């Protein structure tokens, strides 16, 4: 039982350190989607109300 408690304590410390590291980091994502040329409209299967 003593080794179980020791392992549990170590694992708890490891998880807490990992969570602190992940919680304090940020991620930035930039997405670029260029405009489609107007000539491609004629190939569209959707009418879009026009």
Largest sheet: none
Gap between N and C termini: 74 Å
- Kindly name the structural category: mainly alpha
Please tell me what the overall shape is: rod-shaped
Beta-strand residue fraction: under 5%
Give the uncertain stretches in residue-range form: none
**Helix percentage range:** 40-55%
What is the radius of gyration computed over CA atoms, rounded to a whole number of angstroms? 27 Å
Number of separate strands:
0
Order of SSEs, N→C?
H
Annotation field: number of helices: 1
Average pLDDT across residues? 78
Structure description:
Helices cover 44% and strands 0% of the residues. It has 1 helix and no strands. The protein is rod-shaped and about 75 Å long.
Explain the layout of strands and helices.
Layout: H1 2-23
List keywords for this structure.
about 50 residues
Give a brief rundown of this model.
The chain has 1 helix and no strands. With 50 residues, the protein is mainly alpha-helical.
């Amino acid at each position: 039982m003593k080794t179980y408690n020791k392992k549990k304590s170590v694992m708890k410390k490891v998880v807490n350190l990992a969570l602190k590291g992940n919680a304090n980091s940020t991620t930035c994502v930039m997405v670029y989607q260029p405009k489609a040329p107007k000539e491609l409209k004629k190939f569209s299967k959707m009418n879009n109300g026009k």
